[in-house]
Amino acid sequence: MKIKIFIGNLLLLVISSLSCSDFLEELNPNTITVDEFWKTESDFNKGLMATYNTLEMSYVMGGANATSGHVQDDITIPSPWGSGNIDLNNFQVSNINPLVTGKWQQLYRGIFRANQVLEQLDIANLSESFKIGISAETRFLRGLFYFWLASNFNGGNIPIFISVPKTEDEYYKPLSPKETVYNQIIEDLKFAQTHLPKTWDTKNMGRATWGAATGILGQMYLYEKKYEEAKNEFKTIINSDIYKLVPEISWNFDLEHEHNSESIFEVNFSDVVKKGEGTNHSTNRASQIAPQEAGGGRAIEPAYNFIELCKQDPIDPANPINKEQTYSQRALATICFKGDGQIFYQRPSSDFPFIVNQEAHIKKFQNWTWTGEPVEARSGINERVLRLADVYLMYAETIIKTTGDISEAIDYINRVRERSGVLKLDKKDYDVNKLMIHLMRVERPLELAYEGHMIRWQDIKRWGIGKELFEELSIIKYRSFSDWLRVATPEDLVDPTADIRTQFVESARNYNPEEDDYFPIPNQEIITNNKLSNQ
Hints:
By secondary structure, the chain is mainly α. The chain has a domain at 285-381. The chain is built from 23 helices and eleven strands.
């Protein structure tokens, strides 16, 4: 059973109280005030659940983040009709782009909710053990929200709020330097790591654990190139024996295997609308990505180069997981290939017309086993934020960057490959540089495509390989036939009837790491707060 999330503007009275006009001074007897609410353990659990609810918001881990959030990477392209996504894909991002403004506002909303819980918890007359437990979960969430803000906005230089604003000066904060922001993140995550439980019972699945705090802390260290620190965090997860790879990679993306042994942290969704609640806790990711013929909007689709990468993922004929399929298990769990005979939304994939140059559909986190997406555009599939396979690959990277032990790094990479029936890497074929290139160009995109909080784009940024990737991809020419897609031959290029296609041309032309690796601070924030600027 998933934890219950309480939606609504929970006690956001502090904000409105600063500017009440005379005609609003009479108190509404039906309104719960701050002083009346924060009394019982139940009150604080509701406040905590409202903070968790931030994860469900569309630009955090809900539908929009799962679509728009990926179009800046090298394996995703937007549909021809999504102007905001096209701007992101072409690196013509303004400070009024919906993803920019929505992500900023929703993450800070979560921080406000966390600060409200922590501030009231500090003065509550409750047991210390209860207060520490609630504080650990809340600080995990606040640290996570700040991490996602710092890794996406203004080079990590953002305002810090660790209490509920009560005066105008407290609302309008200046930028804090990146180092200060990351120190706050570390402080929050380490507190959570110390005090969170290692597991929860069934009815509380989805609440943060020691593993979630440890994994996100390790990820943060990795993004900041603190490889030794990251390696230590990942190793403690691996050595804990709490987590295991599931037998089939597809179990990580469906309804039936949520909170499985591989999942370290995931966001709960449900397509069930509870009577009297007036809302639901679903995501519209599936309906946004599904093809029109299945009731979807096809907001994003796999790039041609990624389709080729999936086709080339080598199957190990000796691995019993492989039967008669053409492509690897992880490729089949990620996309539906045009004309490959897969059953997709209970129809052969050949039944889908793949209009406007589309050559594959995304399957991860999709209701593709159904006849089509529901008309309400609701999906209850949980978003997996972090899973063990990702930790294995990040740990392998830290080994490459610290000890250079190729043997140990490949052992962990091969655990991931073997689970999906992919041929293991042969250690004699790799040195440190070649293995790192393999991780960047092959292993991580194939295993983790369309997952997490924009994992592929974060990887490209931190490795500094975006410019070379987009320039390489922009000059590849593809030819499409009625049954498949392939890289064009010289003969195709001189054939006046050939259907020649390219991708990432505008991305290569426009991408500038110094300007495009981070979103700007939203224009509305700069207008209302004269202490802010994109510096």
